[in-house]
Amino acid sequence: MKTKKLKVLGVIPARKGSKGVPNKNFIKVYKNKRLIDYTLIAAKKSKRISKIAITTDDTRIIKHSKKYKLDYVIKRQKKYSTDYIKSIDVVFDVLKKIKNFEPDLIILLQPTSPLRKSQHIDESIELLIRKYKKYNSLVSVSILEEPHPFKVKKITNNYLVPFIKNKSSEIPRQKLAKVYKLNGSIYLVKKKVLNNKKTFFNKTMPYIMDEKFSLNIDTLNDLKDLKKMKK
User: Fold this and answer.
1) Proportion of the chain in helix, strand, coil states, percent, rounded to 5
2) What pTM did the predictor assign?
3) How many Å apart are CA 76 and CA 201, to the nearest integer?
């Protein structure tokens, strides 16, 4: 299947609220560059994304994003802007509001992954297209070094017990299987699969990213780390 025949919609969800870092998507990182800018720039530089939609309840982000000349700037309703709303519901809201464009693939690009580059976006799209018959989606991950899931515990009836039942934490590190964590950078899925299965995870291909590109901004410490990198 030729890549040029497939239309790709990039969706950037950038709501205003955030408990960990208030208004983090619009926060300044370096000089006049805001957190949202890193994802907007990567999306615009992509050679594989056909059209870009940003969805936000923040009027500042709506005004700020105009300089990028995006294809769709969607003012998000309050019901899609709570802490508990799922990303998939936000994507469906975008699909209902865009007109005259039927994408084959949808790529969700969260602003909280500022180190993801346009190369990662394009490589992801090309990988899924190359394996189009085998996989329905692609999600980015990075290696989880510590703690390994076998070493994670919980407390039950005041006893320390394995979080994963019947798994020993005393296995030498060298003998443990590699495990991976979602890094939040890329969620790519066939539109027809998203419509039918209501998930980004269906016959999912892993896209392994280096840890140095996998920073996810959830806390003030994450933001401080990003600011240090960008100085």
Assistant:
1) 35, 25, 40
2) 0.90
3) 25
Is it the case that residue 187 has pLDDT exceeding 70? yes
Domain locations in the chain?
3-143+180-230, 145-178
Instruction: Tell me which fold the domain 3-143+180-230 belongs to.
Output: Spore Coat Polysaccharide Biosynthesis Protein SpsA; Chain A (3.90.550)
Q: Which residues of 25-52 are buried (b: 16+ CB within 10 A; e: fewer)?
A: bbbebeeeebbbbbbbebbeebebbbbb
Dihedral sign of CA atoms 31, 45, 180, 173 in order = negative
Q: How far apart are the first and last CA of the chain?
A: 43
CB 230 within 8 A of CB 162: no
Q: Cα dihedral angle (221, 112, 44, 105), rounded to 10 degrees?
A: 150
Low-confidence winner among 18-22, 64-68, 70-74, 77-81 (lowest mean pLDDT): 18-22
Residue 124, classed as helix, strand or coil, is helix
| Burial bucket for residue 118 (CB in 10 Å: 0-12, 13-18, 19+) | middle
CA-to-CA dists, residue 212 to 68, 109, 149, 174, 209, angstroms: 26, 17, 22, 23, 8
**Per-residue DSSP letter, 178:** P
Q: Model confidence over 24-45: pLDDT tens digits?
A: 899 888 888 999 999 999 999 9
